[in-house]
Amino acid sequence: MSYLKTAIRAAREAGELIRRHTYEAKEVKEKSSVHDLVTEVDQAAEERIRDVLLSAHPDHAILGEEGVEAGVEASKAALEEHRVHEHLWMVDPIDGTTNFVHGFPFFCVSIGLSRREELVAGVVYDPLRDELFTAEKGKGAYLNGRPICVSAEQELSHSLVATGFPAGAKGARRVNVKGILHLSPRCRNIRAGGAAALHLAYVASGRLSGFWELDLNAWDLAAGSLLIREAGGRVSDTLGRPYDIGVRHIVATNGAVHDELLAALKESEATGYGDGLRV
Ligand code: 2AM
Ligand code: CA
Ligand code: CA
Ligand code: CA
């Protein structure tokens, strides 16, 4: 089976499980804080994904959110894994757990694959809308099998842009609020849906022209970044350096508004570098 087909199967199986439990009571645990949650459904979905991926590709490594501590160490771990295994899957079983817990219908499964640190396949699946975003390196990006491309907006003033309120590193929210204050009058409007991977898929499919957020992890970003590149967009860190799987502070756009978004974040001192955030 191709890597993409395996990823699709894993995402659909996990999505089915998530969908079944969406409007039921959940057993919720706090991880690092009241802002950082996990449910038994996150864990069961990750198990399901691991089973599908490893039974098809037993020699591959898997970095899953619920298998490690979040934060800088996880990104380092991703890179370390690669020294041993040629292929590394980066898995977020539910991106948008807070939404899932509250019944706010905006969350997804995110599965990305890199080969020797180069992204080769990515799937983002929204189980409630049954929207499957897929990409393979060099083969374009698709939504439910139809090709997608990034939006045509040339300026921030015409752009719908999304961001998020990070839950991890201390101070990340405060830093990002500065970015939101600065960006807000400069773009058409701002959204913060609470699922980074789904926002990235929305940039790839032209529903958003840009997205930025601080302090994310490889499993949030890998699949969505490949989608955007394959859909004709651009992905970098908040200083403009091209995305790689160690990046935590992300800027992802249709390409046309990228430099304007980078410049605005720099002006607002909300890049997450040099402003007290650990990176
Ligand atoms: P999650 O739902 O998979 O945890 C919301 O702004 C985004 O931040 C979501 O994609 C969310 O992913 C992520 N997020 C939540 N808690 C986090 C944490 N402790 N560290 C980093 N990112 C986190
Ligand atoms: Ca989480
Ligand atoms: Ca996530
Ligand atoms: Ca998650």
Helix/strand layout:
Elements (H helix, E strand, L loop, with lengths): L2 H19 L6 E3 L6 E3 H17 L4 E4 L7 H13 L2 E9 L1 H6 L5 E8 L2 E9 L4 E6 L4 E3 L2 E2 L12 E3 L9 H12 L5 E3 L4 H9 L5 E4 L4 H13 L3 E4 L12 E4 L4 H10 L12
Parallel strand pairs: 3-4, 10-11, 10-12
Antiparallel strand pairs: 1-2, 4-5, 5-6, 6-7, 7-8, 8-9, 12-14, 13-14
Helix pairs in contact: 1-2, 6-7
Bound molecules: adenosine-2'-monophosphate and calcium ion (CA) (3 copies).
One calcium ion binds next to strand 4.
Describe this structure in words.
This protein is of the alpha+beta class and 279 residues long. It folds into 2 domains: 3-147, 2-Layer Sandwich (Fructose-1,6-Bisphosphatase, Chain A, domain 1); 156-267, D-Maltodextrin-Binding Protein, domain 2, CATH 3.40.190.80. Helices cover 35% and strands 23% of the residues. It has 8 helices and 14 strands. It has a 7-stranded mixed β-sheet, sandwiched between helices. Helix 1 (3-21) runs antiparallel to helix 2 and helix 6 (196-204) runs parallel beside helix 7 (218-230). The longest helix is centred in the first third of the chain and has 19 residues, at 3-21. The chain is globular. The chain starts with a helix and ends in a 12-residue tail after the last helix. It binds adenosine-2'-monophosphate (2AM) and calcium ion (3 copies). Residues 65, 92, 95, 196, 220 line the site of one calcium ion (CA). One calcium ion (CA) is lined by residues 42, 65, 92, 94-95, 97.
